[in-house]
Amino acid sequence: MTTLLQLNTSLFSTGGQSSQLANAFVADWKDANPDSNVVVRDLATNPVPHLTGERFQAFLTKPEDRTEAQNREAAVSDELVAQLQAADVLVIGLPLYNYGVPSTLKAYFDHVARAGITFRYTATGPEGLLKGKKAYLFATRGGVHAGFPRDTQTGHVRDFLAFLGITDVEFIYAEGLAMGDAVAKPALEKATLAAHRLASRVAETRLAA
């Protein structure tokens, strides 16, 4: 059974434009894969705590050596890691906030980057341990940034996923959403159509495999 993990990271929860694009894709995915397992985590309604020194130390401590408090601290990360390990497909609704990722997504990233579990250090550098997964990202922006040096978000997310071993990554952008209806409406329509087409292409690829 294929498992899809969807992360909605908009501060507006399901009302966010990035969440709506991700939802459009996932709805088509479920129609094409009725036996698949879809897990949704909304980081607005179910946020991940920001990393602290105490929590990070709990990650580093061997399970058998942890205190009760450290077990509680590590349990959040363990749950998130298990979800990500079990997923074959990762879908992220990704708004751009102040030229970066939402802080809730950064907190999520900090909790799933676990040495020896989701990546490991080798003599030639780090190696991701979550290989063989596919990621689809639905990125929404108030301005127009894709393809310009100021779009540091795309590189950051792509590099982080590669750090974990997820290198098969595809972005769909909806930009200019704060530039008036004349720009925003067609941009959203184009991105929504792209999401539907992407789901159809993925379904066709799976059938041909």
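That was protein one. Protein two is written in the same sequence-then-structure order:
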Amino acid sequence: MKWERIPLGPLQTNCYVLHHEGEAIVVDPGGGAPQLESWLEQQKVKPAAILLTHAHFDHIGAVDHIRKTYNIEVYLHEAEEDWLMDPHKNGSGSFLGANAITAKPAEHLLKEEGKLSIGSFTFDVLETPGHSPGSVSFYHEASSTVFSGDALFYGSIGRTDLLGGNHEQLLTSIHDKLLTLPEETTVACGHGPVTNIRHEMDTNPFLNGF
């Protein structure tokens, strides 16, 4: 299985497309729907679902377009059930004003940790709140990758000054759910370059001494 990082939208949020034999999972399509659709068509892969690590506006901008184009469904944690429809909660009202972003409700609400299987893809759903109340990370063991959203970055961690953010909760999430993964696990971050668990354990200044 392979995945591609495609920065999209106003904040160049990393969208990831995990694909295998023509089938794909799209993680966090933050914007730039025509660009994403063009890539999918060029690679001759068809999405089977959209996974959202959380519902901030810069992660959801292309959700409705991709969902409608490919007739697929969206997975989101239940703690952010109404954020797709609410510009105040998803942050677009504050950051984008008249250009606020909304999307239709998710078809599937993640209620707990556990296995999530879609087509030929299987993920471990890890609850990693702190950046936002419903932040989750999707661990894909087959490719040794965790799609961490805005929880953990290369040399940094997610901001916690937005609605429902909690700094101590985020540190606990990272320590208990992400740093316990195999050290060679690739961390597919929501912004910036990818990293791995070992590198962040050894060098991330926000995690030192925690």
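Residues 2-203 form a domain with the Metallo-beta-lactamase; Chain A fold (CATH 3.60.15.10). Keep this in mind for the problem set.
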